[in-house]
Amino acid sequence: xxxxxxxxxxxxxxxxxxxxxxxxxxxxxxxxxxxxxxxxxxxxxxxxxxxxxxxxxxxxxxxxxxxxxxxxxxxxxxxxxxxxxxxxxxxxxxxxxxxxxxxxxxxxxxxxxxxxxxxxxxxxxxxxxxxxxxxxxxxxxxxxxxxxxxxxxxxxxxxxxxxxxxxxxxxxxxxxxxxxxxxxxxxxxxxxxxxxxxxxxxxxxxxxxxxxxxxxxxxxxxxxxxxxxxxxxxxxxxxxxxxxxxxxxxxxxxxxxxxxxxxxxxxxxxxxxxxxxxxxxxxxxxxxxxxxxxxxxxxxxxxxxxxxxxxxxxxxxxxxxxxxxxxxxxxxxxxxxxxxxxxxxxxxxxxxxxxxxxxxxxxxxxxxxxxxxxxxxx
Length: 378
Known about the structure:
- The protein has 378 residues and is mainly alpha-helical.
- It has 14 helices and 8 strands.
- The chain starts with a strand and ends in a 19-residue tail after the last helix.
């Protein structure tokens, strides 16, 4: 099977497209490419996928197709992403009616019925699970192998819930009652904004000169710990520490050495926050111990990730500029402004005061120019 690239004129200039024949005698066309080489590359990819699909058995089910696609894409995915795709496929698709349905019988009704069956999950969870199905069925819809409206399904609306953060008083109250094994990682998290994977991947070699070098993340994949590099360059960063955080880390290191002298078999692997029995600490285990402890304290219940939101909100409320906050979090300035605008001190009142001061309209003026009368405007 071969295809060809063609050019055509539009109001915005020349554009390029490709066309290739289908086994049933029809043709598949696609245009809109700005460059000929882009159209040629897209044609090559389309022909490859078409050849792959030609070998599919007629009764291929949705679950089998998605599993095949995940395996094909796995080399280009992070291990965590591939593992999450497979888990969601196993738990929410494969054992349900949609997962066992042959591809030839898939339509909008079947997909909508499957989404309705996920009503026991939160809207955020449904959206995450939906991505696994939509991502791998969308190419079939684009090629015409599935009806065009197959994925035109309304998902549950995500509620606009405010961020759950602690006030400075609440943070102090929690830290005052927390033991050091959970209290120290909590203090580091709430004063640096590190993600839990970044926190648990820290080693003592990353702690120097009153700062932490963040350049890896810890995740558990199929029951085994794996360290991975950050997805984006900005996640690699050096985070300066508060004086109280430095003192807490020094005390934590001293207690680690005492425990190692008492229990020579306790292996930390150089980690700042190892598990109680040694080795890497699971994020779920840390979160469980965290929830157990704060349940006994009169503070709002928050997730471990909300400690990151708490740190960022405190910095913004203290007047730290968004660029510095973003650099500290390993995020973009746009994300900081969108997520933590509520914490900007004074809000519009402060903006009015600063704007008026900068414009300085109240300065003395030598002459007040009256507004012209109507006949002066002729």
